[in-house]
Structures are given as structure tokens and as C-alpha cells.
Write a structure and sequence with these properties.
Distance between the termini: 29 Å
Order of helices and strands: HEEEEEEEEE
Largest sheet: 9 strands, antiparallel
Oligomer: single chain
Strand content: over 45%
CATH architecture: Sandwich
Number of strands: 9
Length: 137
């Protein structure tokens, strides 16, 4: 029995767990993280759920373009795959008023995490592009 390269083990794990459902791309390196580029959101809705797998660190990069007045976003987690909670320590949503790149960092325990595009004010042209990286602690 030989040792498998990390990339091969990772690809086999993805096939077994269907980790990338609804995600456009996943990148894995020898370090312990999974990076997922989610489908762009252009109207209020939820992103695909990204597996979190226990006590880990989430870093989400959110790129906002074509904003009018503001966009309201919420990062959520779930322990059971059904009931979702706000990852904000203050249990508040994030209001963004300018185009740009924003980060959200959270350390905790969850089964999965997702981005929620809650609302948009002043128009309907905004795009929300999100990349999430889950790092093993």
C-alpha cells in the first residue's frame, strides 16, 4: 500500500462528500484549507452552503460592484443543515454603501456556512461575488 498525494486524497474526498455542490470552483493545497468560489448573486438570495466541518476559521472575500445606494449582507452558519444563525457577534447584518472588496472573518463551530444577500436599496444592478476559505485550526 503506497502513500497517495494530497491532491488525490482531496479529490477522492470531494467525490465522496459532494462538497462542491453549487460552487463554481474549489482550490486545495497541501495546507489545511478549502477555498470555494461561489456563484455570483445579483438579487436577494442565499449562496450555496459551504461545508465548514467543526471548529475552523472562515475567511470570506466579498466583492461588490455596481452598487446604487446600499446592499445588506449576512454571513450565516448552521449546526444541523436546516436552521441558520447570524455569524455576527452582535447578531446584526452588514450594510455596504460603496463598491469594493470586503472581508468577513469568523472562528467557530458550524456544519456549513453561507452568504445571504438580504436586500438592495436604490436599484437592482449590484453584483456580489464571494470567495470563502475554510481553514482547519
Amino acid at each position: 500500500m503506497g502513500v497517495k498525494p494530497a491532491q488525490q486524497v482531496y479529490e477522492e474526498t470531494l467525490a465522496d462528500k459532494d462538497v462542491v455542490a453549487n460552487a463554481s470552483r474549489v482550490v486545495q493545497s497541501a495546507s489545511a484549507f478549502v477555498q470555494t468560489v461561489l456563484a455570483q448573486l445579483t438579487a436577494p438570495s442565499n449562496s450555496a452552503a459551504v461545508p465548514f466541518g467543526g471548529n475552523n476559521k472562515l475567511t470570506a472575500q466579498v466583492v461588490i460592484a455596481a452598487i446604487n445606494t446600499n446592499v445588506v449582507l449576512r454571513m450565516e452558519g448552521t449546526l444541523d443543515g436546516t436552521n441558520w444563525f447570524n455569524l455576527s457577534n452582535l447578531n446584526t447584518d452588514t450594510i455596504i454603501t460603496a463598491n469594493g472588496t470586503y472581508a468577513f472573518v469568523w472562528v467557530g463551530v458550524a456544519l456549513s456556512v453561507r452568504l445571504v444577500f438580504v436586500s438592495e436599496a436604490g436599484g437592482t444592478a449590484v453584483t456580489v461575488a464571494t470567495t470563502m476559505r475554510v481553514s482547519v485550526l
